[in-house]
Amino acid sequence: MSHEIAVLPGDGIGREVTPAAVDVLDALDVEFGFADCEAGDAVAEEQGTPLPEETVETVREADATLFGAVGETAADVILPLRDVVGSYANVRPARAYPGVDALQPETDLVFVRENTEGVYSGIENEIAPGVTTLTRVVTDDASRRIAEFAFDYAEERGSDVTVAHKSNVMRVTDGQYLESVRAVGDERGEEYDEALMDALAMHLVLRPEEYDVVCCPNLAGDVLSDLAAGLVGGLGLLPSANVGDDNALFEPVHGSAPDIAGQGVANPAAAILSAAMLLEWLGEDEAGEQVRTAVEGVLSDGPRTPDLGGDASTDDVTEAVVDRL
Ligand code: ATP
Ligand code: MG
């Protein structure tokens, strides 16, 4: 059976690294149908909207979406698209690779970030001149759902869960989150650690090897996963998944990188590793592992793009990955 994939390169280096990921998928012994679609700054200029209805439909109907990056209009594209795929979990692995300079070469962890509420509720107001508020929404449903996801994910990896929170300050909202996570943990008979997110940030910098799966409220997941990106050697390496019940969207953590766009030197590893996550989500575990191993080999032996100290192009690296498949 063929997997139908919506391909949404977007802007800037999204247009360079997304085709690289498609080339890699094409080289596998797995059948795909690719539906190209547009979103972002360029299409906004042509059509007056950064997210054409046609793109929304293509993403809705696809089995999964491969997303590149979007520039100025990012918030108007990626937030609605996460809704379209019903994604409630943002999965961000951060690991160091042999052959790549990293602040903490033992890092190998995965952030499971709640993706629907918290301070991203969008409920912000100026209640009087110079006085503003933000409503942080935390529900039992969403907290249980992210806890179930994190425990399932850890079970598959054979790893431990750490639950990040700040319930000593946000007593009601993070109190709810923690209560819900604990309820799920008790029901399932799970053993896990709880950590205050500020202390956790320090421990992650000093001893990242002590952590596996970190379950986070929305904003904490955003901040802590970028911190971890700094530990492993840069944005060009970090893939991510936005996962819902029956649809998902995969994207490199990096943005459109206007400073290097059009030069053909963007590191395609993050996009290709996002494609590996897509394969695993589709149940193509063997192919996913194959891609990951090929990327690891290239990161270790070269060729490497300039962000990793090499002088290879995006195409050179992509060809090297395809050769290893
Ligand atoms: P955006 O607003 O789209 O996020 P940005 O200017 O913040 O754009 P990012 O894509 O977030 O750019 O990248 C931040 C820095 O990391 C830039 O200097 C960029 O060149 C570099 N970078 C990001 N991704 C890659 C990549 N895949 N390969 C090489 N360098 C990258
Ligand atoms: Mg950016």
UniProtKB/TrEMBL annotation:
InterPro entries: IsoPropMal-DH-like_dom. Keywords: Oxidoreductase. It comes from the Archaea. One of its GO terms (molecular function) is oxidoreductase activity. This is Isocitrate/isopropylmalate dehydrogenase family protein. Gene3D superfamilies: Isopropylmalate Dehydrogenase. Residues 4-321 form the Isopropylmalate dehydrogenase-like domain. It holds the Pfam family Iso_dh. Belongs to the isocitrate and isopropylmalate dehydrogenases family.
